Amino acid sequence: MLSEERHRAIVSAIRRSGAATVAALSADLQVSEATIRRDLDALAEQGLVRRVRGGATDPRGSVRPEADPRSFADVAASAPAAKQAIAALACTQIRDGEVIALDIGTTVAAMCPLLAERSLTVVTASLAVVRALASAPAIDIVVLGGLLRPNYDSLVGTLTESALRQLRVDRAFLGTAGVRADGAVLDSTPSEVPVKRGLLEVATCSYLLADHEKFPGSGFLEVARLPRFTALLTDRPLPIEIDLPEGEAVEVLLP
């Protein structure tokens, strides 16, 4: 990650949480603590953060930890028909008896009502998924422990990532904040990115669920390249042209 991108990520993280420690930022952004300290000193000189012992705070005042301006419920209410169509398509890729991983995204969570009668093992760090499938008679749920992000009902951090590394799943279903024209799959929450990358590492097949609003969508942290996924599931023909290098491709599935 370039220093400018890292600075944006640091400021965004501190503005969401009100404060961040050097250790947490180092783990989230996968750089040394010495690098983070230099970044924080530079940002403090620009007035973008307030330097404190062990980290930095938001000079505008603190807010709840990881408080995205939009909650999980707010995001879930956006483009519900598109999310449901993509969720239904995603469920057709699953065979009974498989072990699947469900990401924290709202489109992924829309799969849950369609899976309630299936026989599966579900791995997730999403409390929304846990609540939706807790009473499903033939579904075993493996919950990835970690630090709670209250506003988005997700678990993140080193415990989550460590638990993931012990697992293997048949299929993983991930959401995204946006997909750039160069094929970069994006997110905007530093603590979520390692979890998404971990899901890709442990899955035999992986699917990106993204409605038409996600092209290009938003986000400034690259999770992976689009060809890293087995298939892209979306609700309309792509509204932007994805320019992939020669030899790289991804299957696009539509309802």
CATH architecture of the largest domain: 3-Layer(aba) Sandwich
How many structural units, i.e. domains?
2
State the CATH topology of the largest domain.
Rossmann fold
Question: Which strand order do you get reading across the main beta sheet?
Answer: 6-5-4-9-12-14-15
Count of alpha/pi helices: 10
Morphology call: globular
* Rg on CA atoms, Å: 18 Å
Question: Average pLDDT, to the nearest integer?
Answer: 88
Beta-strand content bin:
15-25%
Text of the CATH class of the largest domain: Alpha Beta
Question: Any low-confidence stretches, pLDDT <50, length ≥5?
Answer: 62-72
Amino- and carboxy-terminal Cα gap: 36 Å
Count all strands and give the number.
Answer: 15
Structural class: alpha/beta
Major sheet: 7 strands, parallel
Task: Please describe what this structure looks like.
With 255 residues, this protein is an alpha/beta fold. It has helices spanning 3-17, 22-29, 33-45, 72-76, 80-91, 106-109, 112-115, 127-133, 158-165, 193-202, and strands at 19-21, 50-52, 55-57, 99-102, 120-124, 139-143, 147-149, 154-156, 169-174, 178-179, 184-187, 203-209, 221-225, 231-233, 251-253. The chain is built from ten helices and 15 strands. Strands 6-5-4-9-12-14-15 form a seven-stranded parallel sheet, sandwiched between helices. It has a three-stranded antiparallel sheet with strand order 1-3-2. α2 (22-29) packs across α3 (33-45). Residues 3-58 form the HTH deoR-type domain. Keywords: DNA-binding, Transcription, Transcription regulation. Pfam families: DeoRC, HTH_DeoR. GO terms for molecular function: DNA binding; DNA-binding transcription factor activity.
